[in-house]
TrEMBL record:
Belongs to the class-IV pyridoxal-phosphate-dependent aminotransferase family. It comes from the Eukaryota. GO terms for molecular function: 4-amino-4-deoxychorismate lyase activity; pyridoxal phosphate binding. GO terms for biological process: amino acid biosynthetic process; folic acid biosynthetic process. Homodimer. This is aminodeoxychorismate lyase. Keywords: Folate biosynthesis, Lyase, Pyridoxal phosphate. InterPro entries: Aminodeoxychorismate_lyase_IV, Aminotrans_IV, Aminotransferase-like, BCAT-like_C, BCAT-like_N, Class-IV_PLP-Dep_Aminotrnsfr. Its cofactor is pyridoxal 5'-phosphate. Pfam families: Aminotran_4. It comes from Salix dunnii.
Amino acid sequence: MASLEVENGGDFKVPVFSSSSELLESLHEKWSSVKKQPYPAMYSSVYGGVILDPAMMVIPMDDHMVHRGHGVFDTAIILDGHLYELDVHLDRFLRSASKARVASPFPKSILRSILIQMTAASKCEKGSIRYWLSAGPGNFLLSPAGCPASAFYAIVIDDDFSQHKEGVKVVTSTIPMKSPLFATMKNVNYLPNVLSVMEAEDQGAFSSIWIDEEGYIAEGPNMNVAFISQDQELILPCFDKILSGCTALRLLQLAHKLVEQGRLKSIMTGNLIVEEAKNAAEMMYVGSTLPILPIVTWDEQPVGDGKVGELTKALSDLLWDDMVAGPVTLRIPVPYGK
């Protein structure tokens, strides 16, 4: 391995890798210090297969998703060796791709098969998978016309998540949220989301709440938000200007059990102004990896009595039970060892 030294650069020398073997040796040295591999498998249509070597889990710099943000993504949970709501997420994934004008290199059935086989190869039984469709590599121009083919990438994330029993603090975000066109597709342009979370962390909060330009409650940076009113109504903001969360939609279905039990009065989606939302008895985030995260403080004010509400706990149990032992149509067994 050679090195370059530029005049006035002091003692700093840039390594120059003259062969792939030298580069791989350096990358393997980096990963050898990691106690637990967080990404046990990746798929790349550029490579044409599943990768188990973390040193090779990379995508091309000239991929249009990297330098222009021209791509979409989605996710699914792995729990007890099953993929939860994979088909629902894949349907949304392809809707997002259509809006972003990214053609899939494979039909849905093949995408599904790739994700199941990748998860099986990973041996991971608890965590998540995340997958992307990109306009593909080709050049660094603005238009994707010079990209020969779109690309599909996916990765397994080993993560020991569990139900959230404790509540968190949130703040109202001052970062402008995305326009409805971009907010309703799950695209990779997440800089507003990143800045919104960083703003919350600067204030000692877990995350934030977006308010749309009309003054209605919208969503969190990467999760939906739900409320229990003082009259025991479950209310979620309308999905016309925000991402329709797969977990949020499933929650709306499962919550009918609490209505049948007389614990919830009703279930609805609608426009909520800030004053109405802050008067709620309970508040929660809803998202795939949560699935419910109670919110007990908003802008330094307690939500309800400032404690995790009983209906929030009940909704969390409903979703968790669905993930663990729900319908076979929602829980796809992963064929490990086959």
